[in-house]
Structure formats: C-alpha cells, structure tokens
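User: Structure please.
Assistant: Input sequence and predicted structure:
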Amino acid sequence: MAVSAILRVTEVTVAPGGAGRCHVLVRNNSVVVDQFVFAVRGDVSDWTQVKPARVNLMPNQEVSVELTFNPPRAAGVLAGRHPFALQASSREDPGGSVVQEGVVIVEKFTDVVAQAVPVTSTGRRAGRHTLAVDNLGNHEHGVEVVATDPDLRLDFRVRPRAPRLTPGSATFVRIKAKPRKYFWKGPDRSMPFEVKVLAPGAEPVAVDATMVQRALVPRRLFWLLSALLVLVILASILIMALLRQRPVSIAGPAPLTVPMSASATSTTPSAPTTSSSAPARTSAPRSATGGAGGSTRGNTGSTAGSTTVTTPFVVRADASPGFGGRPQLFSYVVPAQRRLRVLSVVLSGPAGDTGRVEVRHGDTVLANVDLAALGGAGVRHTFSNPPLAEPGERITLAVYCGNADRSCTPEGDFTAALVR
C-alpha cells in the first residue's frame, strides 16, 4: 500500500458555533515521490476544513493533516454523534488509498423564541390568543407555558400547557383569557397579561399580550331599547287618549236593560217555520277556566232552582320506558281560590301500550286501569264518592309504563264541579 494514515484522536467534542480539531498522520510508504489528496466524507463535510488539502511526499516521508470542525449554531446540525471519514488518495497508486474514521460529538444548545397572535384580543366573555413557540436549538425538549395576570382579573386556560418542541419547527399553544367579572355597560376595559415559556437550561421567554373586555350589552342595543321604550310610551298615551273619547250616537239613547234573575233564562225568537207552535231555543251562559297541568273548557248546566257550573281539565302523560316498575307522575294542580269536586274521567291512549295507570287524588288511588284497555274510544270512570280537591292539591295520573322501546302516552279528560 502506497500510503498509511493514523488518526491520533478518534472522537472530537465541539460546541455549536465553536471549533474542534484533530490530526491525522499520513506517511508515503512507496519508493517514489507521490502526491496525496485528502477529503472528508460524511455529513460533517460541509463544516470541516482540511489543511493541507493536498501534499507531495518523498518516500518514507510523513505529514500531519489537521481537521478543523466548525458546526454552526443552528437547528440544522442536531446535537449528538456525527461519524466522519478522512480519505487519503494517492496519485501514483489510486487503488492504494486509505480511509480513517472518527466521530464528532456536537454539544446541545437551547434557543426558544415565542410570539403571541394576536397581541390584543377583544371579547365580552373571553379573549383567545395563539402562542407560536419556535425551537431554534439543536435538540428536542419540552417547555412549560404559564400565563400570569398582575392584577388578578383574568383566568387562563392553556392547551397544551407542556408541549415538546422539535428542532427547527414551530409549536402552537392556544391561550384563552377569561375575565373573572363581567359588566353590563360602559367603556371597554383593557387587561394586560404576560405569557412565559420556561425551557430547561435557558432563560424564560416572556411575551406580553392584552385582553380587551367589552360590556355584555352592546351600546347600540341600549339606544335601540331606549328608542323602542319611547315608542311604546307614545303608543300607550295615544291609545289611552282615544279610549277616553266618548262616542256620540246619532240613533238616540239606548233602550233600558231590565236585569234578569239568576234562575231565569233568555229566549230568542225561533226561525220562521210553517208551524206557529215551534218551541223557543234557550241559551245558557258558558264559563272557561284554566289551570296548570292541563287545558280546560267550561260549561253551565241549568236546573229549575239552581245552577251547577262544571269545568273540565285534561292531564296528558308522556312516560318513558325502563323505569323498573316505578310510576311516573303527571299532575293537574287546583288553582288558587277554587275548589273542585271531581265527578268523572275518560281515560284514553294509543293502542299497543302496556302497563297500567292510576288516577290519584293526593295519595289516594281513585281508579286503576290497564293501559291495553285504553285503545279506541277509551274508558270512562265515574266516581261513586267524588273527591273534593282544595286549592293547591293535585289530581295525578301515575303511569307504570311497560313498553320496551317507546313512551306510554295515556290521557285523562276530567269533569269537575265548581264548589262555592
């Protein structure tokens, strides 16, 4: 072999941005003068210098070749071990080239920068920011993002709070700033805060941001409501002025109305027919009442010496299946200043429901009916001893739904008498 090479140090440690050196002893083993060319192979070749790059050696003469490693302080050169090889090529004996291998160990460095976008957010209930964290160092590591408010007027939600940063890449962190107190009206309130990025072995990176809080009710809405209120007041005044005017009739005074007793009935002339003995049709006054839990409608039954006022109400149920045999309650509450004597009920429901329904007055069970019997025209139940329901008491449908996959929807149409 025409040449021999000896690498004096096989591992070189160097800091990014610094310089590391090693020497290779090259000897001409041939009997002729030869020229040798030196080249570095591997990913370190871009930042490695060889001196001298070529040399002429007499037989048995040797030279020391210096390798200088200058890794840049950038994310492109990762921290860790980088193998390399020095190739010494002979001009006289190309097949007799020699290669020496070694390792360059690049040390770690940490460089983190951050920027908030937007710097100022605006909102009524919260402000949202995005923090872009760039890892300009040469190794992967984790950081912690902390938001602080010097005036303690904001609460923060940071996602993710402890991200891991890849060299040469940006990581985005969502920050939600939420005011601790709201206000209905007034000027906007500016609340500055600070976000810190804490990286191991490096100084904290501080980023300033601001959340501008607006009133819950926009200013335009106040003006709109004020204008609407003025219009309502003007319309009310106009309507009251029109109602106060007494109409003048050109037909003369109205005829006197003779009051009738409570037991008397009013008659209306019947339509003309071929028979003069057609009976007159009587009309009875109607009353309508309402209450919680059902829709109501009223009528009046007239007798020879007294008047009985009845008021119906409806209780509708929508019981879900799968309650383990427990009843579901649907009630009508007797309104204030009313007393009702419940006379009867017509229970109805769709065909196919299974289970049963109970009619209750408070804790007293008045009727118990199978749901399967309610399909079609329903079931009428007249109470032999009609219960008296006082104001605030409940008339309840207790539904035991036995369906497998749909609700039970029975309905109770009650008839009750008003008790004075």
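The two ends are 130 Å apart (CA to CA).
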